[in-house]
Amino acid sequence: MKPEQNSEAIPHADPIAIFESWFAEAQKSEPNDPNAMALATATPDGLPSVRMVLLKGHGPDGFVFYTNFHSRKGGELAANGHVALLFHWKSLRRQIRIEGPITEVSAEEADAYFASRHPESRLGSAASDQSRPLPDRQVYLDRVAALRAEYPDGNVPRPAHWSGYRVTPAAIEFWQDRDYRLHERRRFVVDGAGGWTSSLLYP
Ligand SMILES: Cc1cc2nc3c(=O)[nH]c(=O)nc-3n(C[C@H](O)[C@H](O)[C@H](O)COP(=O)(O)O)c2cc1C
Fold it and tell me: What CATH number does residue 28 fall under?
């Protein structure tokens, strides 16, 4: 077995800074959507579900994604406001897990993000009854076309049920691929003083 150059590659402090650094690297190396993350939710009685969403904001305050609050995930989040997020960057052989409670972003924040989207994307999300049965794809396309006719400039208003959630991290875990599958894991948890403590975990 070859000797490792450095036995611990994941820093001990400031998981938000580590996230920023790894995310910046992923933006350079991933072929598409470096901000794609799996979002796990669960019903109050513990039945899980998971799907991909896009990270649209991040920092010490938390990790933001946008969706339709009337969707399946929206229903689960209304009843159980705890989630897990997962990034897997194949190009870097890295994984980040984030767990914590959610809060809704403000209407102003959601409006600003909605307004930044491509007009066709705004129409598409305004026309979508996300997660509801769709009898025929043409029904959805017709709804988009009707909204496009109503708002020719594409400035359809943000539906009140289309908004964002901010995940406040209570735990962040970094996983780095290492030779011979002797991988490295470091898990940070919020301590009582509002800071972070961390420890290595067996891989
Ligand atoms: C790469 C990728 C990114 C996605 N981003 C979002 C997103 O940001 N918001 C969203 O509501 N759905 C997004 N989706 C679609 C979701 O995975 C999912 O199909 C949809 O939100 C309905 O999920 P639900 O029925 O569990 O609520 C994305 C899908 C993929 C594959």
Answer: 2.30.110.10
Kindly report, residue by residue over 35-71, the tens digit of the pLDDT.
Answer: 999 999 999 999 999 999 999 999 889 999 999 999 9
* Beta-bridge partners for 154: none
List the domain range (segments joined by +) for residue 88: 15-113+159-201
Point out the ligand 1 atom lying closest to the alpha carbon of residue 56.
8
Total domain count, the chain: 1
Residue 141 lies in a domain: no
Q: What is the pLDDT of residues 67-112, one digit of tens each?
A: 999 999 999 999 999 999 999 999 999 999 999 999 999 999 999 9
Pocket test for ligand 1, best of 41, 67, 87, 132 (most atoms within 8 A of CB): 67
Q: Is residue 30 part of a domain?
A: yes
Whether 121 lines ligand 1, by a CB cut-off of 6 Å, is no
Helix (H) or strand (E) holding 38: strand 36-42
